[in-house]
Every structure is written in C-alpha cells, then in structure tokens.
From TrEMBL:
Coiled coil: none annotated. The keyword Repeat does not apply. The keyword Ribosomal protein does not apply. This is TRAP transporter fused permease subunit. Keywords: Membrane, Transmembrane, Transmembrane helix. The chain crosses the membrane at residues 12-31, 43-61, 68-88, 100-121, 128-151, 180-204, 301-322, 343-360, 366-384, 405-428, 440-457, 464-491, 497-515, 527-548, 554-576, 588-617. Residues 113-546 form the TRAP C4-dicarboxylate transport system permease DctM subunit domain. The lineage of its organism: Bacteria, Bacillati, Bacillota, Bacilli, Bacillales. PANTHER family: BLL3936 PROTEIN. NCBIfam families: TRAP_fused (TIGR02123). It holds the Pfam family DctM.
Length: 636
C-alpha cells in the first residue's frame, strides 16, 4: 500500500476511512448525529461507498501495478456513484420493490455494482474465489435446466437477478455484510490500533518473558505470541507476516532448522483464525446464522481453540526435548514485571473490551470503548504517542483492512443470494442427509473433505459462509448441535492454510525462513494435525462447547484434553516423563487418543487406565535396563 497510496490518494483513503468509521459509530451507538439515521440497507450502501471504493485504490488489478492506474480511478468513481445513488434511494428500494422490478437508472447501477463487486473480490481474494463466486452468482440464470436434480431451482432473467443481488437483503446486503457492518468493523479498528500502538511487540515480549527460558523457548514464544496476536487479528497470513518476522529468525538462531521454524509459526498463526474473539470475522457471522448471542459463540469456541494451541505447544516441547534445544538464558529475556509495566495499556484495553462485552453486552460498541481507551492511554505516554504521520498511516491502514474485509464479504454475499433465490440451499442440505443415510460419520467425512477443498481457494470467512448455507443445516438435520456443526465446518476450512497443495500460511512463513515451501507445509500439517481431530471432538462431545450440564462439560473437556495429549505425544514421538516413544507406543497412544472421541466416560476411563498400566510396565522395563547397563559399566 505504501507504494500505491501517497499524496492526494492517501488523503482520499484517510477521509473515506474516517467517514466510514463515523458511519459505524453513529450506527452502533444509535447517535443520530446531525439528524443522520440511515435505514439498514442505506447504511450498508454507504459503508460500501466508503470502503469498497478505496479498495480499488489500495488493491492493484495486476501484481505489476505499483501505482494507481486510470482503470483503478474509474472503478473507484463508479463504485462511489453506484453505491451513493442506491443509498439515497434506499427507501424507494424497499417501498417500491426495486429488488424485483426497478426503473432504468437503479437497474444500470445494480448491473455495474455487481460487476464491480466481482472485480474487487478478484483483487482481494484471488482468481479462485472470484471464479467460484462469479459462477455461483450467475447460476440462477440456468438453475431450472441443471441436470443434477437437487441443484435445480427457480431461474431468473439477467435484469431481475442483478436487481435481486444488489437491492435485496439476501445477497450482497445479506447476513454476512450486515453482520460486518454491525459488529465486525469495530473489532477490526481495535486490532489495527492495537498493532500500531505497539501491541504486537508487547505480546511477543510477554511470550518471551513467560516461555523463553523453557526448553525450546523460541518456538514456545512463537506459539504463545501468535496465539495472543491471532486472537485480535483473526488472519493467519497477517499473523505470520507480523510475528513471524521476529519469531522465525529467533528460532533458526537457537537451533531449529528452517522448515520446522517456519512450520511452527504457520501452524500457530493458523490457530488465530479459530481463536476468539474475532476468529477471522467468522464468530460474528456464525452468531447471526445460528441465531445466538455473539458471547455464546466466543465461549463455545474457547476450549477447542485452547486445545489446538496446547497440542502445538506439546509437540514443540517434545521436539525440543528430543533435539536437546535449550531455552533462552534468563539474562537475555525481558523481565516479566517490567514487560507488564511497559505494556499495561494493552492489558487495560483488553480488560475494558471484556468488561463491556460481559456487563453492557453490546458487541458492536465494546471494541470502540476499548479503542478509545488505548488511544487515550497511548497519547499520554511519550513512547507510544502518535505523530501526525503515524496517525495518518494508522488511519490509512485501517481503511485497507476494512476495505479488504468488506469487499470480500460483499462478494461472498453473492453466493448467499444465489442459493437463497433459487431455494437450492434447502434441497442441497436435505440431499446430503439422504446420501449419507442418516449416518453421522459419513456426513462428517464428506463435510470435512468439502470444507477442506473449499478452504484451498477461499478465505476462512468465505468458505465458512458457503458451508454454513449448504452443509451446516445437513449436520443439524441429523442431530448435531447447531454451534458444533458451524464450528466443525470452520475448523476444516482453516486446515488448508497449512496443508498442501495450497498452504498459504506455510508458504508465507517459508518465504521468511528461506525454507522449502512444500517441506514446510508437510511439517506444518504434522504439527497442526490435531485440527483434523478437534472438530470431531466438538461434534461427538458437544459438552466440550458447554452444550450440557457443568459436570458433562468438565468431563468432556477432560477427555478431550487427554485425547489431544495422547495424539500430540504420539505425533511427536515424545512423552513427558518417559522420553522418546517406540512405534508401538505411538500407535497405541494414537488409538487411545482417538478413542477419547467416544462420549462414554466408562470407555474413556478404561482406555486411559490401560495406557497408564502399559506406560508403567514399559517405563519400569526401560529403567531396569538402564540400571543394569549402569551396573555393568561400573563393574567394568
């Protein structure tokens, strides 16, 4: 962005960003400033005018475009004119039913904006996402002649479809964009402010203070630092780029090979997309789809996310033990108390965010309170005080982040609109259930494969939204808890970040580490393989997401933790308190870990008891052999 946005264009981006944030604040706080209280569809049009328009300036049409070209300016102007025109006519759209039959001018605006949404989607999400959304967006034109019967639906002519996509509340202005406009904007603003005030560096130093002196300290710092940062950024790629610049060179310096160092960062950063509170923006959209409070999603997702990071942490520890990688000397680490005293403003803002979420229970307002607090505290300290240039850079960066997310979500809304208009979303999920024969495991495996494939070409939010329409209802239809069903598809969508052939997070990390991208993605898959098991734990033991009594939830958390511990230990081939494991150990512990999926406490206890007995027998034998070898050496 630095190369493309400068001079007058940067001023335009800053002004548009400030206007867009003003729109959001006015909306979520119900301020009616200057008597301005737009209708919901009007508000969303103006939000697109502010952020989607500047995305054409920020995001290049071609990788070779290092400056703003004439076609960027044309697209910027057309977006601004089309969205403002529709926004000013928002009341007529509703009262006169323009989403079905509209006059010439709004129809032209709808066709133009449809094309612009697809183009900005191509720039923000890539060619694969563009192709998927573009094809599905025109699918209603020939839905009645599709040869696959469960994909057949109502068909539309081109003009009616364009009007429906742009002026109805089911497509571009549907649930995803409505959720972003109401809830997500504030959290993204908070994340950018936290980063620009030094929050990323603080969380890295905090992780160093707590974990740096342990064996494999640099890798554990990467896991913890990426977890902290990922909770707020919600993006695997930005997490790798931000924290990886610090953690990957440090890991290589302490003895980790390039592939492993890059894999640790990629796997840890991917965890940020499933870690509350943002979860790649999916938490808010999930709350809207499921019809529950946002806090309920956050609470449900907390334990599975913690299990993911525990599994990665466990494998990192085992690797360090096997390769005798020691921690960082304490004298080289920042003292914990000093780190906390220097970064208390970040902790204060986090506490403020949580308090507002819990006690005021306003998800849309909470991040703005926290943002205001951290800005005030940052300006009071000389070390974090903003100059005019830094403030301008932060606002421009906010516009870039918001523009990219809003453009992506608007484009993905076309999928929602197409399936909603044709009625196929219901028949598709019903057919999935029939094909699986009400067999939950078959449906889960089919869903996992579908989620994984879609995740290769789509962002987490885009993939999740698509699957929330076609797959989640099928899972709910066979008795799966609704939140568990939506978390299942979200976890599998994130897996593509670290698994070949795409592995965007792994490839990004390998670029920093100068490692082999394919080998890095293979190591990342091994480290993050627990991602494939946790969704099944969530479905088969819904008490893990607090869907049950407190006793049931605690038992599920316990069995899932044991399962993750066993699988993680087996994958790395190292068991704490025992040492390197044999292949028999690893096979049995893997089977034992998978058995923890069974929601039967008697079976869980029996399996763990057998493994403990096996562990002590082999440990005693190992110790006996070691003692005998020592005695022989002494006698010689």
């Amino acid at each position: 962005m630095v190369n493309r946005i400068h001079g007058p264009w940067k001023v335009i981006v800053i002004i548009a960003t400030l206007l867009g944030v003003f729109l959001s604040v006015n909306h979520v706080f119900y301020l009616r400033l200057f008597g301005f209280a737009p209708l919901q569809n009007e508000y969303l049009y103006y939000l697109l005018a502010a952020f989607m328009s500047i995305s054409f300036l920020v995001l290049p049409a071609k990788k070779t475009d290092t400056s703003i070209r004439y076609y960027d300016v044309i697209a910027f102007a057309l977006t601004l004119v089309a969205t403002m025109f529709l926004g000013l006519n928002s009341e007529r759209i509703i009262l006169e039913g323009w989403d079905w039959v509209a006059p010439v001018l709004p129809t032209v605006a709808a066709v133009v904006l449809w094309a612009l949404v697809l183009e900005i989607l191509r720039r923000a999400g890539g060619k694969i996402l563009f192709a998927i959304c573009g094809l599905i967006s025109v699918y209603p034109l020939f839905a009645n002649v599709i040869p696959v019967y469960f994909l057949q639906g109502h068909s539309f002519d081109f003009i009616t479809l364009a009007n429906n996509h742009i002026m109805s509340t089911n497509s571009v202005l549907g649930v995803p964009l409505d959720t972003v406009g109401t809830l997500v904007v504030g959290f993204l603003v908070f994340g950018v402010i936290l980063t620009h005030t030094g929050g990323g560096a603080f969380f890295f130093k905090l992780a160093q203070s707590v974990f740096g002196s342990q064996r494999g300290g640099e890798a554990k710092v990467s896991v913890a630092g990426s977890a902290f940062f990922g909770m707020l950024s919600g993006s695997a790629i930005s997490n790798v780029v931000t924290t990886g610049q610090m953690t990957i060179p440090a890991m290589k310096k302490s003895g980790y090979d390039s592939e492993y160092a890059a894999a640790v960062e990629a796997t840890s950063s991917t965890g940020g997309t499933i870690a509350p509170p943002i979860m790649g923006s999916a938490a808010f959209i999930m709350a809207s789809f499921v019809g529950v409070a946002y806090l309920e999603i956050v609470v449900a997702a907390a334990i599975p996310a913690a299990l993911y990071f525990i599994a990665v942490f466990l494998q990192v520890d085992g690797y360090a033990a096997k390769h005798d990688l020691r921690g960082i000397p304490k004298r080289e680490l920042p003292p914990l108390l000093k780190t906390l005293s220097e970064g208390w403003i970040y902790l204060a803002s986090m506490v403020a965010l949580i308090l507002v979420l819990v006690f005021i229970q306003s998800e849309g307002q909470a991040p703005y309170y926290a943002s205001a607090l951290i800005l005030i505290l940052a300006m009071l300290r000389k070390s974090t005080r903003f100059s005019f240039k830094k403030l301008g850079d932060m606002i421009a960066d906010t516009g870039k982040v918001l523009g990219e997310i809003i453009s992506l979500i608007a484009g993905v809304g076309l999928i929602v609109g197409a399936f909603s208009a044709t009625g196929v979303s219901f028949s598709f999920s019903r057919e999935l259930v029939m094909m699986a024969g009400d067999n939950l495991l078959l449906l889960l495996i089919a869903g996992a494969i579908t989620s994984f494939i879609l995740g290769m070409g789509m962002t987490v939010s885009a993939s999740y939204i698509f699957l929330a329409i076609v797959l989640a209802p099928a899972l709910v239809g066979v008795g799966v808890d609704p939140i568990a069903a939506h978390l299942f598809v979200l976890y599998w969508a994130t897996a593509s970040y670290i698994t070949p052939p795409v592995a965007l997070a792994a490839f990004t990390a390998s670029g920093i580490a100068n490692s082999n991208p394919l080998r890095t993605s293979i190591v990342s898959t091994k480290l993050g393989i627990v991602t494939f098991f946790i969704p099944f734990f969530i479905v088969y033991q819904p008490a893990l997401i607090w869907s049950g009594t407190m006793t049931e939830s605690l038992l599920s958390i316990g069995t899932a933790s044991v399962g993750v511990f066993l699988i993680g230990s087996a994958l790395q081939g190292y068991l704490i308190g025992y040492g390197s494991m044999t292949m028999i150990h690893r096979a049995l512990f893997s089977i034992g870990g998978i058995t923890m999926l069974v929601p039967n406490i008697a079976v869980n206890i029996a399996v763990v008891s057998l493994l403990i007995i096996f562990y002590f027998i082999t440990y005693s034998r190992k110790k006996l052999l070691k003692d005998n070898a020592t005695e022989e050496n002494v006698s010689q």
